[in-house]
Design a protein that fits this description.
Helix content is about 45%, strand content about 15%. The protein is globular. The chain is built from 8 helices and 7 strands. It is of the alpha/beta class. The protein has a single domain, classed as Rossmann fold. A 7-stranded parallel sheet has the order 3-2-1-4-5-6-7, with helices on both faces.
Length: about 260
């Protein structure tokens, strides 16, 4: 199936590692030009070089950007549009992963997960309005969909992000701009949250592993495949959807 991504211009926040990195590689592999950012400029530079080495004839651009620096974030988005000749796809992936219940944890989660997503969308909208296949995809989590892990900023701010994206889909549909959310479940990759828990809290890791009907955790690539689809022209009539990628982990009926 041709997703129709060749020649499209994509922008990904938090794209240097894990799920974000897989999204960058997958979009590039489908023929899209991809710009991505992350806070660690050295990690971004190394990731960009690795993606470019295998990406073929597409454009790859990485920049160190702190998404809570809204002026810098907006500047990067405008620079990307100028360098690429437009923006068709925006993937808001960055997260504070805030599990600390104190006020600073809540503040950090609000700034990174909610405000940076809003700022990313607002800065990109003038460019998306010029696209004939505009799509916004926001990465959330299944932790936003049911009680999991106690009272944590991460769960609540991601629930707010899903609500924001759903309302955005309705508001922008008449302009031909689609907006969807992808909610990963337990995703394992080296250096990631579940890798840390496997080493530092094996009881929690094994409990989470045992809850999944498939008997395993997911991979960043499996999430990236879902993101590539909902962000592509192949999903041209799909908007306002929260696509769950969790192997059946969440025990709920989806309507």
């Amino acid at each position: 199936m041709d997703l129709g991504l060749r020649g499209k211009k994509a922008l990904v926040t938090g794209g240097s590692r894990g799920i974000g990195r897989a999204i960058v590689e997958t979009l590039a592999g489908e023929g899209a030009d991809v710009a991505f950012c992350a806070r660690d400029a050295a990690a971004v530079e190394a990731a960009a070089a690795e993606v470019m080495a295998s990406a073929g004839d597409v454009k790859i651009a990485g920049r160190g950007v702190d998404v809570t620096d809204f002026e810098g974030l907006g500047g990067w988005i405008d620079d990307t549009a100028s360098a690429f000749g437009g923006i068709d796809i925006v993937v808001a992936n960055v997260s504070a992963m805030s599990g600390t219940p104190g006020i600073e944890g809540w503040r950090r989660g609000f700034e990174v997960d909610i405000l940076s997503t809003v700022q990313t969308v607002e800065a990109a909208l003038p460019h998306l309005r010029k696209s004939g296949a505009a799509a916004i995809t926001v990465i959330a989590t299944t932790a936003a969909l049911e009680a999991f892990g106690g009272v944590r900023p991460y769960n609540s701010v991601k629930a707010a992000v899903i609500n924001y994206a759903s309302n955005l889909a309705s508001a922008l549909a008449s302009e031909g701009i689609r907006c969807n959310t992808v909610s990963p479940g337990t995703i394992f990759f080296e250096g990631g949250v579940w890798d840390d828990r496997k080493r530092e809290a094996p009881d929690i890791f094994n409990m989470a592993l045992g809850r999944n009907p498939m008997g395993r955790m997911g991979t960043p690539q499996e999430v990236a495949n879902a993101v590539a689809y909902v962000s592509s022209p192949a999903a041209s009539f799909t908007t306002g959807v929260n696509l769950v990628v969790d192997g059946g982990l969440t025990q709920r009926v989806q309507y």
